[in-house]
Each structure stands twice: as structure tokens, then as C-alpha cells.
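anyone seen this seq b4? input:
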Amino acid sequence: MPHELTPAQQKFVESQVAAGVFESSDKVIEAALELLHQRQIEHERLAVAFEELENGNHRPLDLEEIKAMGRELLEAKRASSEC
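predicted toks r here
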């Protein structure tokens, strides 16, 4: 699905490739889409959590679960920066 970038977006993509952060413009766009996807997942989780809290349906914090989620996010960030 081809899409034209704005001049500012194109300049940013080119700067990322020129700086060696990414090997190609496709990799920059893939990383951006992955970050957007992860952001949407987190937004959905927060929306569910707030709804549960408002309805009185909540549970104690599970620190191990929170740590695991943090590790997943860190790994995803590291993987996207290695592109």
C-alpha cells in the first residue's frame, strides 16, 4: 500500500538512514508502525484497567507481571533500535 510522506516525514526518515540508525527507509517505517501498534495495545490495556477500577473490579498489583511487561517493552525497544 503505497503512501506519500510529507516533506518533513521524508526528511526525518532520510536522516535516520543517513545516521545509520536504520538500514533503509522501509525499516524506519516498520519500526514506526511497530511502536504505534505497541502504543495502541498499551492504550487498550489502560482503558480496560480504568473501566475495571471504575466498576470496582480490580485486583492487587502483581509485581512480577509488571516486571514482565516492562521487560517485554524494553526488549521490543531494543529490537526496534537494532534494525
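The CA atoms of residues 72 and 78 lie 10 Å apart. The mean pLDDT is 92. kinda curious what u guys think
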